[in-house]
Structure to design on (513 residues):
RNA sequence: GUCCGGUUCGUCUAGGGGUUAGGACACCGCCCUUUCACGGCGGCAACACGGGUUCAAAUCCCGUACCGGAUACCA
């Protein structure tokens, strides 16, 4: 039997980091086992679900490269089936009608969650989960009241004695006494199916073999197993994932922590999808080796359920420090990808970034330059063509960048005359040495003289150089190796350190430190 | 409250009876570069606590503490 897993978000907001990781793990597991990765949008909570959320989630998954293998299932399309399932359970005597009027939601000033916790605490020990007066109502009477139009919810009849058990692929054997599980509502009094029922029905229908989801569902699983059994279906395997926590160890939430938990934030702030995916994979899972950078292929090959942790992971960021707006390891990993990924994969991403920043020029297009090797500093694009120049420039400056945004911000001066000077850089590299005001233009003239692009003086000019003996100096290319001695000599001549010249030039030319 | 889960450097983690407890990020230092960055080398830094079991416990068992999750006619 082939593995079938699913990612089942509810569209009540953008794609959250924790959800994204759940999706990723499902995807990796499916690929690793040669199975299918499915997507189901759990949009049955009409009040909270929005189309925009659905779109945002899809976008996030798309960005991460997690495309479902089959048609997306919208849970709301299946409510009729869910209803039927509840009714069949009722018919079979495995569920009962509860005619208790629906209690009004308590005051809205407190969050729903805490008010529920509060109530649970109050009810405390004396609770008896089998005390519902309608649980043992004779069928005839129940039918009659229903026929008369009295509203009812359908509750699952949880056995009085015994315990629920299942084996979690991550957390091991799980058990829960039935006395701890309430007769959960399957169908609301307005006929609306509830989460646990809907999930089970859909997972059955979709042929799900492994349910991989957040650990916050661990206790739900007992209820769901009960529903599977009542329906006469063998439950799938379950694997629960540790949660991702905020630095204060609270559950990472959209409401509380804002955009740092949203997938789209990372896309919009210049992250490489592969880098972020790599980072996410290592949050709560490990291949058990001393390695951090994994290609998607490697992740798929090495992924296994028993590499998943049992303890929650903290996603480390600081709300007050803009430099640590997200986990520093994620930023580092992104920089690592920017520096080391094949240039041809980076170029299109940089192009998009520059386009967004209105710095893109069509002349940069088509830059298939195979002969690039080493660091050729080519200042003038006129000498080698814009496309080639672009390619080399990106390859040069990517060494110091962390996100794609840096190409249009820190690196703006490479693509536009209109750029800002970093005040700190100005102070440190230019104002400190007033003589630079004369030195730099002088140096520029000297370099110009030396490397001026007259007759065939291009990057590949060394061919000519070789055949031209003593004229060598005149036609050397403008490379790091060739500039260096000139700068050194210049510095010496002016009685200063090359660093002063170099730093000053960099800041004057690019605006950055 | 009750039930369930968890606890190795600040953070992500390896290790699951005998290790100088390993790696990564961050931080610090040195080297490279008479520049920034990259890179290289090194440093700081952890087994929550208390009892067992054992020749030997970070590792197995019990308890405590702390953290988290769940407890809804939400998902």
């Amino acid at each position: 039997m082939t593995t079938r897993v699913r990612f089942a978000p509810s569209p009540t907001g953008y794609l959250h980091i924790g959800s994204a990781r759940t999706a990723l793990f499902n995807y990796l597991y499916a690929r690793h086992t040669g199975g299918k990765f499915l997507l189901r949008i759990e949009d049955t909570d009409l009040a909270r679900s929005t189309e925009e959320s659905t779109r945002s989630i899809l976008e996030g998954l798309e960005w991460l490269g997690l495309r479902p293998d089959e048609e997306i299932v919208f849970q709301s399309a299946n409510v009729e089936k869910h209803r039927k399932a509840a009714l069949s359970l009722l018919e079979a005597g495995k569920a009962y009608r509860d005619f208790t009027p629906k209690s009004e939601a308590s005051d809205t000033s407190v969050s729903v969650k805490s008010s529920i916790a509060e109530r649970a605490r109050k009810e405390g020990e004396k609770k008896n989960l089998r005390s519902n007066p309608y649980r043992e109502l004779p069928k005839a009477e129940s039918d009659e009241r229903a026929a008369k139009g009295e509203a009812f919810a359908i509750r699952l009849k949880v056995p009085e004695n015994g315990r629920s058990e299942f084996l979690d692929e991550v957390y091991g054997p799980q058990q829960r006494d039935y006395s701890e599980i309430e007769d959960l509502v399957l169908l609301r009094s307005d006929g609306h199916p509830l989460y646990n029922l809907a999930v089970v029905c859909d997972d059955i229908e979709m042929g799900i073999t492994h349910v991989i989801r957040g650990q916050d569902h661990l206790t739900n699983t007992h209820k769901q197993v009960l529903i599977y059994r009542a329906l006469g279906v063998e439950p799938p395997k379950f694997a629960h994932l540790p949660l991702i926590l905020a630095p204060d160890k609270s559950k990472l939430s959209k409401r509380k922590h804002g955009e740092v938990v949203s997938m789209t934030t990372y896309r919009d702030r210049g992250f490489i999808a592969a880098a972020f995916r790599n980072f996410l994979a290592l949050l709560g899972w490990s291949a058990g080796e001393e390695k951090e950078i994994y290609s998607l292929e490697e992740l798929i090959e090495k992924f296994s359920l028993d590499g998943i942790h049992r303890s929650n992971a903290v996603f480390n960021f600081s709300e007050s420090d803009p430099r640590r707006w997200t986990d520093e390891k994620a930023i580092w990993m992104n920089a690592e990808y920017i520096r080391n990924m094949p240039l041809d994969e980076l170029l299109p991403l940089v192009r998009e970034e520059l386009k967004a920043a209105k710095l893109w020029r069509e002349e940069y297009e088509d830059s298939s330059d195979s002969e690039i090797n080493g660091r050729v500093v080519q200042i003038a694009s006129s000498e080698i063509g814009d496309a080639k120049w672009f390619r080399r420039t990106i390859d040069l400056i990517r060494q110091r960048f962390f996100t794609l945004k840096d190409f249009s911000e820190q690196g703006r001066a490479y693509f536009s005359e209109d750029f800002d000077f970093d005040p700190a850089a100005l102070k440190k590299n230019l104002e400190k040495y007033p003589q630079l005001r004369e030195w730099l233009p002088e140096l520029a003239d000297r370099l110009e003289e030396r490397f001026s692009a007259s007759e065939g003086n291009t990057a590949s000019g060394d061919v000519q150089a070789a055949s031209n003996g003593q004229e060598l100096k005149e036609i050397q290319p403008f490379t790091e190796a060739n500039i260096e001695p000139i700068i050194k000599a210049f510095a010496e001549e002016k009685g200063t350190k090359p660093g002063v010249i170099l730093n000053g030039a960099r800041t004057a030319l690019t605006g950055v430190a």
In short: The longest helix of chain A spans residues 17-33. Chain A has a mean pLDDT of 87. Residues 102 and 189 of chain A are 8 Å apart (CA to CA). Chain A is about 45% helix and 10% strand.
